[in-house]
Amino acid sequence: MSEEENTTIEKGAIATMLEEKRIKVTPLGIDASGTEQIAIDANNLEQVAKELKRGKKMNLLNFITAVEVKDGYQAIYRLENLGINGDEQVAVMIKVTVPRDNPVLPSLTKVFPTANWQEREAYDMIGIKFDEHPDLTRILNPDDWDGHPLRKDYIGPMDELNQPMAYK
Q: By residue range, what is the domain housing residue 123?
């Protein structure tokens, strides 16, 4: 048996708690800082956020970012309980992948109001749409901008400063 085949992913307390609530979770391990990492289905995102806010007192949505991956686009969320009032300090990274042909996730603005501008940035730069977002408009690019600049297939506008490279 190779070392790679013998490697198992450690399941943390958060994945265990969510599985007990019959939510499908894929454990991705625990990083060097102790942050548990999990992957979930898009249709479970809002329920997972509510469960973590209620059950683990994760009141801080530290960030949302988005990247293009082989299977589509991935939104990455970091939720934290900062350990205030004697609570256990804990954090989790949640990864949710959506297909290229239908990049839609539920908005978390009702659970975490700070998701508002971060979801707008993911929409503007990668093109993930967030259902029931109160104002899903561009935040970094002009409203009439064409495309999403962080997509691998994006070709920006051509002008006197931005010209295709001429290779010899």
A: 13-131
Number of domains the chain is built from? 1
The first and second tokens of residue 50, run together, are 């509510």
Distance (Å, whole) CA 139 – CA 130: 14
Residue 156: which pLDDT band, with cuts at 50, 70 and 90? confident
Decide if 145 is inside a domain.
no
Burial class (CB in 10 A: 0-12, 13-18, 19+), 59: middle
Higher local confidence (pLDDT), 8 or 79 = 79
CATH of the domain at 59: 3.30.460.80
- Specify the pTM: 0.88
Whole-angstrom Cα distance, residue 130 to residue 116? 10
